[in-house]
Amino acid sequence: xxxMYGVNTPISxxxxxxxxxxxxxxxxxxxxxxxxxxxxxxPNGSTGEMSYLTTEERKRILECVLDANNGRKQVFCMVGxxxxxxxIELARHAQDAGADxxxxxxxxxxxxxxxxxxxxxxxxxxxxxxxxxxxxxGIPQLAVNDITPDLAERxxxxxxxxxxxxxxxxxxxxxxxxxxxxxxDFSVLAGPDDLFFALLASGGDGTxxxxxxxxxxxxxxxxxxxxxxxxxxxxLLQAKTNRLITYISGPNHMSRYKIGxxxxxIIKCSAVRKPLRDLSxxxxxxxxxxxxxxxxxxxxxx
Length: 302
What we know:
- With 302 residues, the chain is an alpha/beta fold.
- α8 links the parallel β7 and β8.
- The protein has helices at residues 23-35, 55-69, 84-97, 114-126, 140-143, 149-158, 172-178, 196-201, 216-227, 231-248, 253-263, 281-293; strands at 6-9, 40-41, 74-78, 101-105, 134-138, 162-167, 187-190, 206-208.
- α2 runs parallel beside α3 (84-97), α4 packs parallel to α6 (149-158) and α9 (216-227) runs antiparallel to α10 (231-248).
- The mean pLDDT is 97.
- It has twelve helices and eight strands.
- The protein is globular.
């Protein structure tokens, strides 16, 4: 079964000033990321504001991304939702639409016990083909519910099409534990962008990086340098990238992603969906000045 590797971008969801999805800008963003040579596209994730999208919007966004991609890169779609039924609906749609695989986040708000979470993932995995790859998605700081190594092991043992996990809490020991599942044959992707190089050096497969919407060159170059065995270059690039993401992933980072993309001429508008807040003109100016001071488009200066 296919697996994600390298740099995968959880695509930002461009919107117009009325708060509607801007599908033309979404296609432009897909083409930009593909031209920058990211390894995969990942629509409808947290960075895509999926919690504030309707089910039909999420379906159309995936279809738009698949159309723009036209087979050039792998496309895994995040399908996790608040209910098992909605998650299964989105999972089946992703399979039928031609996605390469899916990610499934835990439901949020209510604190679920380990058996409830296990059953949720088992039912979603059973709803699609046995060879349709699934990634678990753990982000307990937002979703309330965590995916422990023990739970991930139980899911992997009972669901052959669950091939790995994206874990977004900044816990390197936890990431290392997850790599031991299935005797080490379990794909682990970093959610924390600042751990990308560390994860690669520890045997992980890559990242699903929200910041790679704005600075895909940095993440691609880290991965290419690592693949080439130039670990010092990869380390220095990661250090510069970490300085950049201090500002890019600051407060209101969904808005910051879109401001960066608008500044680069990729999308038309930096609006986010309410209740998320757009940055003020003063905040926007300060943000752009901060990343420009770090030569955010230059991957040759470390």
